TrEMBL record, chains A, B:
The UniProt record lists the keyword NADP: yes
Pathway assigned to this chain's UniProt record: One-carbon metabolism; tetrahydrofolate interconversion
Gene3D superfamilies tied to this protein: Leucine Dehydrogenase, chain A, domain 1, NAD(P)-binding Rossmann-like Domain
Start and end residues of each Tetrahydrofolate dehydrogenase/cyclohydrolase NAD(P)-binding domain: 189-336
Record protein name field: Methenyltetrahydrofolate cyclohydrolase
Cited function: Catalyzes the oxidation of 5,10-methylenetetrahydrofolate to 5,10-methenyltetrahydrofolate and then the hydrolysis of 5,10-methenyltetrahydrofolate to 10-formyltetrahydrofolate.
Family: Belongs to the tetrahydrofolate dehydrogenase/cyclohydrolase family.
Origin: domain of life: Eukaryota
GO MF annotation: an example: methylenetetrahydrofolate dehydrogenase (NADP+) activity
Species this chain originates from: Eruca vesicaria subsp. sativa
UniProt GO BP: one-carbon metabolic process; photorespiration
Domain Tetrahydrofolate dehydrogenase/cyclohydrolase catalytic: 57-167
Amino acid sequence: MEANMGSLMGCTSSTPSFLIHLNRQNGAIFTRRCMGHLCLRTAVSACGSSSDAAMVIDKKRVGKDIITEIRTEVSRMKESISMVPGLAVLLIGDTIISEPYSVPCEFVGIRSFVVRLPEGTTEEKALESVSGFNDDPCVHGILVEFRLQSHMDEHKILNAVSIEKDINGFNPLNIGLLAMRGREPFFLPRTPKACIELLHRNNIEIRGKTAVVIGRSNSFGMPVALLLQREDATVTIIHSKTKNPEDITRQADIIISAVGKPNMVRGSWIKPGAVIIDVGISFVPDQYARYGFRCVGDVFYEEACEVASAITTDVGDPGLLRIAMFLSNTLTSAKRIHNFL
Amino acid sequence: MEANMGSLMGCTSSTPSFLIHLNRQNGAIFTRRCMGHLCLRTAVSACGSSSDAAMVIDKKRVGKDIITEIRTEVSRMKESISMVPGLAVLLIGDTIISEPYSVPCEFVGIRSFVVRLPEGTTEEKALESVSGFNDDPCVHGILVEFRLQSHMDEHKILNAVSIEKDINGFNPLNIGLLAMRGREPFFLPRTPKACIELLHRNNIEIRGKTAVVIGRSNSFGMPVALLLQREDATVTIIHSKTKNPEDITRQADIIISAVGKPNMVRGSWIKPGAVIIDVGISFVPDQYARYGFRCVGDVFYEEACEVASAITTDVGDPGLLRIAMFLSNTLTSAKRIHNFL
């Protein structure tokens, strides 16, 4: 896995730049604009050709690191208590597309269980499958995915998943526990958790920093804001009713965006030295692109690179980090259920 | 009740000012500093003697208005479906102090049920009482109050209250539903709900405004921030790890504080024309006061009066508004349980 890390990594698909491959053991790179403790010290790549450009936070590397750690933990668990975590996936309304979890599960030693329910399956059948996973002691994490058009009550199926195995973390009780001080949620939702991992594993301090989250969705904006607050950031959520959002982002040490508005966050919106995590993805027409469109983020990447100290974008993201989060939550669940420290 | 409204009302206990008694039917008072739509149009009193001072939001009047409305609704419910809401109060560890809910319940027509468990009662006995209230169809709201030293597991007792009757609204599931867009909590926690009522009933627009909440407690700061966000404000929570909180409060159209730090928010922290809701209470030594101390809020009241457009403070608050919120939540619960619109 490490052997791949020295390869050419694109800052965007059109402006490749060489990955500076260093880790904590080998040394540290500091960004040129250091904002308090907001420094990047681990694997980063230069964004664009300017010597004053932001460093690119290497999501792929963080994903690989986490997967390696999970593999080690699963192995330790197997050796110690002869148990391995199990991830169950219920695919509803899809009989063609293969599911993406089996291979990574196998790689880290997690057992995977897949049930495919074709279009037209009754709600009762789906609930039966969920109930079976809930009761199965070999299953520690459950994912339900609705593909194609399903005529089922999705809420009803999702609510049937036992909260102790609901690794998506979107159950309202889990969200409530995430919001409350002194309480612990069962799971951290995957994309918000991935953002925090990116900051932590690049030694970007969150405590005492001002953070702006753009977007307030249940699946990302709201939980990532709650997570940042648990990490002692001072958090503001910007949304569609916010007036002059650029005045607010310009005060922020950390900007996290997930609204799907192409290039909304311009360079002028960003405080020099800020850290940017762009989770938004949009497709815009481009007559020069192969298929007539290209993929852009919420943040105007080229402009942001000139102002921010560190940046990462979802554009072109292989999703490795998100899969790592599912595996991590499955492991967390198995350790909790079997009281394995 | 209305007859009392023309009485002298203290802006603080030391600087009384005459209540300007107007309501929506009679006319409207506009504050001199109007910030966009942030205008006070209903019952307010001048704060201090300066002609340029903030208007005092009249909490007592809002409390009375709500209680009057509840009384009317309870009466309508009784006439329509021959049912009245019921509020059950479990007092643990106190056999002396009388409970404060019976009289207001009686006034609005809500039945009240009080169980007192003296110091030394077993946890099982308390759980038995909660279970009885959960199952009683005449009970729609349950409050559990721990007084004096109790050796019980308070979390265990509180968690036993059915979420459909838990009018405190602090159950994690309820908080999760409050945090999520498109979901509805069973109840709004009382003090956050009271703050929103104060803003609504004084025609102070929340949508699109910047709001700062000082303090992130589970019982107030966090839920009031979630509520403001549901009302489409752009919300920032300030807490003990926030650097330069005054820079953040100075941007805010609405400041709500509940940290218990005497006079922390100075006049220089406040944007001209902002609206202030101060829920914090502290006691500070005062050799000239009758008992050697006096009660102050988080906000330096006299300074804030010179800058804000509207202000309200908990200092000297009779708690009428909070009791109104309990009664309101009990009514909400009864209407939901009996499907009474």
